[in-house]
Each structure stands twice: as structure tokens, then as C-alpha cells.
Design goal:
The chain has seven helices and ten strands. About 30% of the residues lie in helices and about 30% in strands. Helix 1 packs across helix 2. The protein has two domains: about 130 residues, ATPase, nucleotide binding domain (Nucleotidyltransferase, domain 5, 2-Layer Sandwich), CATH 3.30.420.40; about 100 residues, 2-Layer Sandwich (Nucleotidyltransferase, domain 5), CATH 3.30.420.
């Protein structure tokens, strides 16, 4: 039976948990700005103590790799890499948008889209679009929310909006019959557990020497027209 340590510092929430497969043994979190550097290591120690485990018994560390807060991501990943180096533990990176979407996948018999979205800066938002089976329909991007894309998607099927940017960017769709608003608005370590277990079983590990946060904003302009065409007109050969 494998034990996992999951860490999420991608937003103002500092969240740590220990799980055995998909069963959560201990979960600590606090929502406050600028506390990650002062609380993260103590949260890890306290979780280990409450779970009656040592670091040598942890099989892998799952870390929210972003997108999200630049500072929060750097702190979380630096601590996770340090623990992995020191204790020879594999590191598993989880995309924050994928984690939000995964919480809704396969939960409905209806065919639908899932649109996870995280607050960014400069009046932009991190978002993407998955189908019900977690196939990426619209690639990860950081930009203004695109009304043409969303309305086209809503005209095809239900769209579940989830994440901490929902209230800022999607209220104009609230009367659309296909708009569904998730109760999950914040990213924390509980969303990482299932994906960490899956990647561990598949032996999908990061190279700790080169692993960096997935900032996304630096790459937002790449392939934007191609992504739009895939959603509106389908895959191109």
C-alpha cells in the first residue's frame, strides 16, 4: 500500500495532505496571503506526525505545479524538491487546471465540457477545456476569457465552470441553460490525491534536477489560433 504526500501552494491556500492510495489520512490547510514559506514545512511535519508516518515511508510527493501564483508555486516546488532530494522520494507534478477538472470528470451520464479556471494577473485568466473523459479540447492558456469560444461550447453541450476565477469571468453565462457552476472554487491538496496515485501507478515521475513551475503565462501566445480552430471546427489533419 503506497503513501503519498501532496502539496498545493498555487493560490493563497497553503494545503498539505497525506493519503494512502486515495484515502486521505491527514489534511491541513490555511487560506491567507504570504504564509506559505512560514507554514509549509511545519504542515508537512504535523501531517506526518498525525498519520504516524516518517518520510522514509512516503512513496511519492505530488505537487501542484501550476499554473497559479508565481511566488506560491516557487515556494511549494522548492520545498517538495528539497524533500525529494533529501529522502530519495519520486516527485509527481500535477497541473492545477487538470486537478480541478478531474474532480468533475465521469460524474455525469451527460456528455459535457469542463472548464477549469484560475485567477491570473493583468486582467487575464488561466483556463482550458476538457471533455467528460479528460481529453483536452482547448489547450491551457492565459488570456482574456474568449466569449466566442465559450458560447460556441455552450451551444454544443453543458459546460461546468470550476475554479477561483469563475465569479470574475463567467457570470454573463449564468442564465444560459447549459452553464453549470461548480461548488469547487479553490485548489487545494485534496484535488491532487487521485492524480498522484494514478501517475505513481503509471510511474510518471519528474526529473527533480530540471522540474520547474508551469507558469503558462510566458507561453500564452503560442498556438492560440490553432487551439481556437480545434474547438470551433474540429481537429485538422
Amino acid at each position: 500500500m503506497a503513501y503519498f504526500l501532496c502539496i498545493d501552494t498555487s493560490t493563497d491556500i497553503c494545503s498539505v495532505l497525506i493519503s494512502r492510495e486515495n484515502h486521505i489520512l491527514c489534511h491541513l490547510k490555511v487560506s491567507d496571503k504570504n504564509v506559505h514559506s512560514s507554514l509549509l514545512t511545519s504542515f508537512i511535519e504535523n501531517c506526518l506526525k498525525q498519520a504516524n508516518l516518517s518520510l522514509t515511508e512516503i512513496n511519492a510527493i505530488g505537487i501542484n505545479a501550476g499554473p497559479g501564483s508565481f511566488t506560491g508555486l516557487r515556494i511549494g516546488i522548492a520545498v517538495a524538491k528539497g524533500v525529494c532530494y533529501g529522502s530519495s522520494i519520486p516527485l509527481i507534478g500535477i497541473n492545477s487546471l487538470e486537478a480541478l477538472a478531474k474532480a468533475h470528470a465521469h460524474k455525469s451520464i451527460e456528455d459535457l465540457y469542463i472548464c477549469p479556471m484560475m485567477e491570473s494577473k493583468n486582467k487575464e485568466v488561466y483556463f482550458c477545456l476538457f471533455d467528460q473523459n479528460m481529453n483536452l479540447v482547448y489547450d491551457y492558456t492565459c488570456s482574456k476569457f474568449d466569449d466566442e469560444l465559450i458560447l460556441s461550447s455552450l451551444d454544443k453541450k453543458k459546460v461546468v465552470f470550476t475554479g477561483n476565477a469563475v465569479d470574475s469571468w463567467t457570470l454573463q453565462y449564468q442564465n444560459h441553460p447549459n452553464a453549470v457552476y461548480s461548488s469547487i472554487r479553490e485548489s487545494d491538496a485534496t484535488l491532487l490525491s487521485g492524480l498522484t496515485t494514478h501517475k505513481y501507478n503509471m510511474k510518471i515521475f519528474e526529473d527533480i534536477r530540471y522540474f520547474e513551475p508551469y507558469y503558462l503565462r510566458e507561453f500564452k501566445a503560442q498556438k492560440s489560433s490553432k487551439r481556437m480552430n480545434q474547438v470551433l471546427h474540429g481537429p485538422q489533419n
